[in-house]
């Protein structure tokens, strides 16, 4: 949609490019827990980016309710939404106008190109499930991510500690600088392509190598997809050859992603505060190739062998499909947390993802309530479970 001003009675959609540049908070380690205090240095956040789960009426209702609350209680806040959400608001303008509480004012909502949203956002609020967070975070790939306040309104809420019924008090704590955040690491995925594939010419031709980078909150996955043959991959760790594997694929996961695809493939569950990278094989031919947990300082490189019988290999980052890999291509995996020359045990406050948290024990509660960790075949009352 065009980002020129669009007005419908009480609702006005304007271009976020006109907003001031983002000012991000500082994160000060708490002396009593592993969480960090979120401190706004001069004044509270003014540019708030709200992203939501699509095509879900209850989430759409929550979005309008939250916009109402911000405009009524925090008139200095600029609400930013994606272009897709802005289009929804315009298409349903009559319905939205009926639900806007303060009809004495025009409710202004900002939108724009992703790069403008990235430049202006000081706080991100998500309404949906874990997939909503991953999609929102992907917009900030290769740049600093603002703090994330997440409300569970989706199928799975492993990354979403807050209930939307408490949205007013939860937001107030963040706004007033009384909230705490859990640091989650991201992976840097550097792809070096040695070939160019022409659809009309099945034989690959050599071109000047190209390099690209993308970040992952959960995982980076290499997979043979629907092709019949196993993928042959050479693995190097810290510039030293480690092994060659034949498998359906490989998963490189953060501790956050340890409870996602990696877990389904047999990988370990890892606390988000543990500085590490998980390497999990997907259906390896060798039964002795077990999942690995490597230090976050590791520099991992995988090279797709020229002997691969498949002409392409799928690459996904946080479930988002990337251009296919081809034999000879390289994928370099490093931790974004590590700054060259810095002690690996120290985190940079400009890297990773800072998630507003309820307590340092939320991860333990989620393991039990969402994943049913170590659940028996009988519930607490001794009744048989329906499996």
From TrEMBL:
InterPro entries for this protein: ATP-NAD_kinase_N, ATP-NAD_kinase_PpnK-typ_C, NAD/diacylglycerol_kinase_sf, NADK
User: What are its GO biological-process terms?
Assistant: NAD+ metabolic process; NADP+ biosynthetic process
Molecular function (Gene Ontology), one example: NAD+ kinase activity
Keyword tags: Kinase, NAD, NADP, Transferase
Domain of life from the UniProt record: Eukaryota
Answer yes or no on keyword Acyltransferase. no
User: What Gene3D superfamilies does this protein map onto?
Assistant: Probable inorganic polyphosphate/atp-NAD kinase, domain 1 (3.40.50.10330), Probable inorganic polyphosphate/atp-NAD kinase, domain 2 (2.60.200.30)
Which Pfam families does the annotation name?
Answer: NAD_kinase, NAD_kinase_C
Keyword set includes Electron transport? no
- Tell me the HAMAP family matching this sequence: NAD_kinase
User: What's the family?
Assistant: Belongs to the NAD kinase family.
PANTHER family membership = NAD KINASE, NADH KINASE POS5, MITOCHONDRIAL
This one is known as Uncharacterized protein
Q: Which organism is it from?
A: Candida maltosa (strain Xu316)
């Amino acid at each position: 949609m065009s980002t020129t001003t669009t007005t419908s009675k009480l609702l006005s959609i304007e271009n976020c490019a006109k907003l001031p540049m983002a000012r991000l908070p500082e994160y000060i380690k708490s002396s009593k827990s592993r969480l960090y205090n979120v401190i706004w240095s001069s004044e509270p956040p003014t540019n708030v980016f709200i992203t939501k789960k699509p095509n879900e009426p209850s989430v759409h209702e929550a979005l309008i309710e939250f916009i109402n609350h911000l405009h009524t209680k925090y008139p200095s806040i600029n609400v930013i939404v994606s272009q897709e959400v802005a289009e929804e608001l315009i298409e349903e303008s009559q319905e939205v106008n009926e639900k806007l509480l303060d009809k004495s004012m025009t409710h202004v909502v900002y939108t724009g190109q992703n790069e403008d949203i990235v430049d202006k956002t000081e706080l991100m609020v998500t309404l949906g499930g874990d997939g909503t967070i991953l999609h929102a975070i992907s917009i900030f790939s290769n740049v600093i991510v603002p703090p994330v306040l997440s409300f569970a309104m989706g199928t799975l809420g492993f990354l979403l500690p807050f209930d939307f019924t408490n949205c007013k008090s939860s937001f107030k704590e963040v706004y007033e600088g009384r909230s705490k955040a859990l640091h989650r690491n991201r992976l840097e995925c550097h792809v070096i392509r040695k070939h160019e594939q022409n659809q009309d010419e099945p034989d690959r031709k050599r071109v000047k190598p190209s390099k690209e980078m993308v970040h992952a909150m959960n995982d980076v996955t290499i997979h043979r997809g629907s092709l019949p043959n196993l993928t042959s991959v050479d693995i190097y760790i810290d510039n030293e050859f480690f092994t060659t594997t034949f498998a359906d694929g490989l998963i490189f996961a953060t501790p956050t992603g340890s409870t996602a695809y990696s877990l389904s493939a047999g990988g370990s569950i890892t606390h988000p505060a543990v500085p590490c990278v998980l390497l999990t094989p997907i259906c390896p031919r060798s039964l002795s190739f077990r999942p690995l947990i490597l230090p976050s300082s590791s520099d991992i490189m995988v090279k797709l062998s020229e002997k691969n019988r498949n002409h392409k290999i799928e690459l996904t980052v946080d479930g988002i499909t990337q251009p296919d890999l081809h034999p000879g291509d390289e994928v370099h995996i490093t931790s974004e947390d590590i700054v060259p020359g810095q002690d690996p045990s120290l985190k940079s406050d400009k890297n990773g993802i800072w998630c507003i948290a309820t307590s340092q024990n939320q991860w333990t509660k989620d393991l039990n309530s969402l994943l049913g960790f170590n659940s028996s075949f009988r519930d607490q009352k001794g009744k048989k479970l329906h499996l």
